[in-house]
Amino acid sequence: MSRPTSRFGKVAAYGDVDASRGEFWVESPWSYPRDKNLSAFEPNRVLLNRGRGRAEFWDISSVSGAGDTGDGRGVLVLDLDDDLAPELVVRHSGGGPLKVFRNAFPRAARLQIELVGSKSNRRGLGGLVSIEFGGSGESGGRRLARQLWANNNFVAQQGALVRFGLGDPAKIKTIDKLVVHWPSGKITELADIAVNQHLRIHEKDGRAEKVR
Asked: What is the tens place of the pLDDT at every residue in 160-186?
């Protein structure tokens, strides 16, 4: 398969293609033919963070149902049922099915952040969002940080959002402190933020607008 520098580019085959042996050439991965398939039947993988503050994961591919052997390519993380718990959408190449894997994990406290830049870029891309919750100092508070990017992968693009999973909804009711480090260098600080909502934070005036 070719790798042009843009989706409008095309790259010719580097040599003869023997169709009798099942060989074929794709001039651009952005215009992949529906009747071709590169699958070598490698199963998809779903890894679950063990939540111990280290890069430790469980392989839950088989029990999640997402570990099929389809030619999975584009993957999106989308909240399709508006409960802030995102689902997985997997697009298979070669005309295969579009699969949606519903998020059936136990309910958790969540927070979703959208940034609106003024001096920074419009979407606040590159901004760093950090939160503190569950008390502070000796009371055992936690701190999480996420940097905002427009997450893209092969033939797939999704919204520029920061998502936080916070744990037991019976214990986590509010965010003690939320700080946005904007690409411009500006800092916005907010306190006592309710969980389980989607907030749109504006760089210009520091306003936090509830979307849902």
From this structure: 999 999 888 888 999 999 999 999 999
Q: For residue 196, what pLDDT is reported?
A: 95
Could you tell me whether strands 142-147 and 187-194 are parallel, antiparallel, or unpaired per DSSP bridges? unpaired
In 35-50, which positions are buried (b, 16+ CB within 10 angstroms) versus exposed (e)?
eeeeeeeeebebeeee
The whole-angstrom separation of Cα 12 and Cα 27 is 6
What is the torsional sign of CA 111, 114, 120, 126? Answer: positive
To 10 degrees, the CA torsion angle through 164, 169, 172, 177? 30
Contact between 110 and 196 (Cβ < 8 Å): yes
| Greatest CA separation for the chain | 70
In terms of Cα–Cα distance, which of 121, 132, 127 is closest to 187?
A: 127
- 131: tokens are 């939160």
pTM equals 0.74
CATH number of 109-210: 2.60.40
Residue 138 has a pLDDT of 43
Question: In the chain, where are the structural domains located?
Answer: 1-31, 47-101, 109-210
Q: Is residue 16 pLDDT above 80, yes or no?
A: yes
Identify each DSSP E strand in the chain by its residue range.
47-49, 57-59, 72-78, 87-92, 98-101, 109-116, 128-133, 142-147, 152-153, 156-157, 162-167, 174-181, 187-194, 197-202, 208-210
Give the chain's radius of gyration (CA, Å): 21
